[in-house]
Amino acid sequence: MSTLFRRRSLAAYVYGHVLNSHKVHTSTAPLLQETGLYGFNHLKTPKGFQRFVEDAIERSNELVTFISGMPSAPEIIGAMDEISDTVCSVIDSAELCRATHPDREFVEEASEASLRINEYIHHLNTNHCLYMAVVKAEQDSHLLNEEAQRVAHHLRLDLEKAGIHLPSEQLDRANQLNMEIVQLCREFNENIINDPGHMDIFPASHIPKKLHHLARPIYRTTSGAFGGSAWSMTNMKEKGFRLPTDPNTLSSILQWVSDAEIRKTAYIQGNSAPLGNLGVLDKLIAARHEFAQSLQKFDIVSNALFWMHMQIMGHSSYADLAVHSSMASSPDIVLSFLLEMSEIVRPRADEEFKTIWNFKREKSGQLYGDLEPWDETYFTAIMKSAVYDLDSSVVASFFPLSQCLEGLKVLAESLFGVTFHHIPLAPGESWHPDVIKVALHHPDEGDLGYLYLDLKSRKNKHPVCAHFAIKGGRRLSETDYQLPIVALVCNFLGSKPASLLNHWEVETLFHEFGHALHSLLSRTDYQHFSGTRVVIDFAETPSNLFQYYAWDFRILKTFARHYSTGDVIPEDLVKSIRGAKDMFSGTELQRQIFYALIDQKLFGEEASSIRDTASIVAELKRQHTSWKHVDGTHWHTRFGHLASYGAATCMPNALLQQYGKRFVKRIRSH
């Protein structure tokens, strides 16, 4: 769903009397004065979200009235952008709160605020006065600079994608579908948090000690002999462990547990939750498909200000709608690319599969056993360790979380000449004791923006790693700029001591930090082209490229030091880590292609006939991977990208898996 006021926009030039009493967030403000969440005074209490929404609607209505008077083109674009900034501040704050806040009352109020503001957004997206004003601004392009002209064009297209051109009855239905989509996406993601699945293992000795911190002790009553007599029985308590099967914990189980039956149980349980998302996804597919097709051909003729004639064509599928405005432009192009990539990578992936299978046979002594999906992580880890003499605990010892953050600071300074400084959190500003706040500073330009870091795992926190916008940067006047505020959220388990990270977690941290820098360093006049507010298949490019620095010894040696000895990570160890990464690169690329094909298939032209998403995913896995599908599992029901984006984000990951190294090599050579 891409609509004008839900693009999570970032920057704008606002003119004269369009401005209200905005306050510029700067490091010279009284930092320790009591405030609310994220620096918003409204959010001192959970109920503050209600006032936050009311004020946003009140201010937006004032701007709608102003725009309806058909002011100049620059004033129209500036006011439209302020509306977007106002409503997105509420939505973005609410989404971050829902994903991270430990207080259930805050989460519930944030959820209600998000729903209320989304309903208001759909009201804005059906306001014909706003649409005609945007069209007028686009027609008066000679009054706009180049960036503003592009903004006007995109604003019009976004309103049309929301169905502004439709007759009243059809527009009402489109709005109803949009709200259904919002609620279904929310339910899908909440189910991922609330139902990660779990497994109970007895006896406790079956779980390696290095996983005990992930588990909760449980006990069951058993019967046992007492006093040496088989006839004298007493009840005994046997200790076991209950482990959640969220993605992070499941990955650890599959890597470290040698018992194949336990790995099998974990794999099936982890890939069969949340069950409720099967039904949610069916409804989401149907709603998105109907919405895309509802944008039927329709002629808009004239209004009191000017004559216009245009044709709006419906879309054959939601994939068509989502991809249409991206760089790829067509789902046919995306599918052609993915199928070609699948064919190219298949021989290498098959060869890697045979290598793993042969290793399992040799290791287990089972010459005729199959290679199962729950074997992949376990045996590839052993193979990498054997070939490159790697011990993951040794690797992790060089990556204390605090040192990794220092490394990111060094990298940002060397690349962009910027520095990070810790800022004390004001009373009420934070949502958890683990949260820290830093300012990005440039020696000539001053503070560039602010970043919250919430990196450690905890109960009821969303299980994925993500970058959240809180407040977008935008130009307020010729001299003032509203600085961006973002949050970087991860779920690092952090083995003790010193919160040590596995290298894949270091790579994830670098990836998300790339998103944050993209937002903080961006300086555009208008929000549509600032930071990560770009076409969706480009949004992942800076972050994907940035994560390659996590593999570069020249960077790692600046911060990767042993947590106890202080020794710099050996270059040979880094070479081994990189070599291990490349051992099964065909399998990993094949996996990314598979993810992208799921995305395209579920939201493609055949969406109206889909009755069983699990069967479709199973068939795609058989066709496009070297691994078998396990009946009864439905991994895709915890694939959050299907809800958050749908049909638009997986393809660039596959592309960057294939070509990212080439990009980085070119950067290094210059």
From TrEMBL:
It holds the Pfam family Peptidase_M3. Coiled coil: none annotated. Belongs to the peptidase M3 family. PANTHER family: MITOCHONDRIAL INTERMEDIATE PEPTIDASE (PTHR11804:SF79), PROTEASE M3 THIMET OLIGOPEPTIDASE-RELATED (PTHR11804). The keyword Ion transport does not apply. Binds 1 zinc ion. One of its GO terms (biological process) is peptide metabolic process. Its cofactor is Zn(2+). It comes from the Eukaryota. Its main location: mitochondrion. It is found in: Mitochondrion. Residues 311-647 form the Peptidase M3A/M3B catalytic domain. One of its GO terms (molecular function) is metalloendopeptidase activity. This is Mitochondrial intermediate peptidase, mitochondrial isoform X4. CDD domains: M3A_MIP (cd06457). Keywords: Hydrolase, Metal-binding, Metalloprotease, Mitochondrion, Protease, Transit peptide, Zinc.
